[in-house]
Amino acid sequence: MSHRIANESALSDLERRVVEDIDDEEPWALLERFADLERISGSDDEVAAAEYITDRLDAFGVEYERYDPELYLSQPHDASVSGVDRDFEGSFVKTVSFAADATVTGSVEYVGSAGPSFLDDPDPDEIQSEPYADVGDLTGNVALTAAGSLSIRATRTLEDKGAEAVIAIHQHEREPHNGIATPIWGGIPELDEQDLIPDIPIVHVTKPDGAQLREWAESDDGVTVEVSTNLTTGWFECPLVVAEIAPSDVDTDEFVLLHGHYDSWHVGITDNATGDAGLLELARVLDSHADEFQRSIRIAWWPGHSTGRYAGSTWYADAFGLDLARNCVAHVNMDSPGAKDATEYTDMSCWTPEAHGLVTDAIDDVTGAPSQERFPFRAGDYSFDNLGITGFFMLSSNIPEAVRKERGYHTVGGCGGNSDAWHLTTDSLDKAGREELVRDIRVYAVSLLRVLTADVLPFDHGRNAAKIHSAVQRYDDAAGEHFDFSPTLETLTRLTTEIEAFETAVSSGQVAPTVANRTITELSRVLTRLNLVQEGQFEQDPAVSRQPVPRYAPAEQFDTGTLDADERRFLTRQLQREQNSVVYEIEQALEKIPTV
């Protein structure tokens, strides 16, 4: 199947040849095979999927390694909510990974939402900066919340308030979405993190069932329910496949990591069999053009995404951390491409600031479709942020918002925005589009080739520094007289000037490509970490939402008027220490920029 290239004249000869080689035969064959496999990690179907991938790589003659790491996973099985004093049985109930395996009974207390409720018009008084701030002691009660896909922070808050169990009401009329409850990235807690794993049953119910429970809970008589969950949480060996395609006549340790998860909820066609098909097609096509590359590409299929909080990619980040830190110039996540009727790149794609021009140019040249920059999500298999690696394309294309609204879709985090597919039993073959998938694979191919073949890496760290400067300026404005971020702002201004001079020297040939690339990669290590993470380079930030320059984000609390005099002083000392560290790191980055 062909897809019209929007601006073919903008493609290089190699890009045109690669684009022409990409078709739907191999990708669709994978989708048809995976449509029969429920690829939950640790299952026989997951192993069958890995073996399909390796069999096809063997057929292509592409070299690969299969690893079988032990991952800490939580497989949800059955769940139920039944009335004790009223006739009620949940029509479609799911528990979530890392909930407690237990049965409890309690009176239902409706606790509102950590954000706007979708059961009625949003109440501004119900939208709180701290989730459930007005909810009192829940001991002996089952908390009922309209939080939809219950956030990690909200779950922890309700447990801390003594809830015996949590029932989350989903927006879906027929079937709640599958999910996970641990904030621990990669699933495996450190010794002092074990208490972060929930110790109560958590279930998701449909919108109609939730509305009925809420009506009873808010009545004079109330309602008592039994909540039961059944899960297996423990260690599982899971196949992890990494192909490597290297140029034969270029001596380089540099590589790009292209990756996506192959495990799924149910058969998971658009989350993420389409991504697996894209990875396989790119392995097939790129392998025959490798001698035209300047650096290698690794293509990885991860297990443990859904039931281990990105356990497979986290294992790889740990096991190959030094190699990645030294040699990986970019990581590219392929998740949920090719959803039927996805025609834009506005809602779900994201990239680090320095990759903006690279990504948007590729989208424009291949598709001509709208695109929009978004701050990188702390989600997906972005397990390489703490390492400081440039990243782009998390969730590929999306169905336009107007179309989603017309179809009655609520907001979800994947499947092109198709809420009748995401984490549901209905994410089946009909949710994928042949033309959409080929188009998305071609966008990935062109953006990858522009990194793989470049003499000098095409990343704009001047733009990166400017974005960080803008974020710090907002924090400076919020802090007002309480804290002064001018040392950071001044150092960032100096960095931006030095980067501009460096880029000019590179373009004029005054800096050798090897020196330029090492400098660009070192800048990524500093600026990506500064922009995205709080923890150390070989650690993992928790799986919770974040703001730009998260180490400075607490400064916004000065502007809320909620801090007392002592708390303002505590925060001032905290920010002073952070600023010392940040300025020192930027100064180290400045020292790595060659002078001409």
From TrEMBL:
Gene3D superfamilies: 3.50.30.30, Zn peptidases (3.40.630.10). Residues 241-431 form the Peptidase M28 domain. It comes from the Archaea. InterPro entries: Peptidase_M28 (IPR007484), Peptidase_M28B (IPR039373). Transmembrane segments: none annotated. One of its GO terms (molecular function) is carboxypeptidase activity. Pfam families: Peptidase_M28. PANTHER family: N-ACETYLATED-ALPHA-LINKED ACIDIC DIPEPTIDASE, VACUOLAR PROTEIN SORTING-ASSOCIATED PROTEIN 70. This is Peptidase family M28. It comes from Halogranum rubrum.
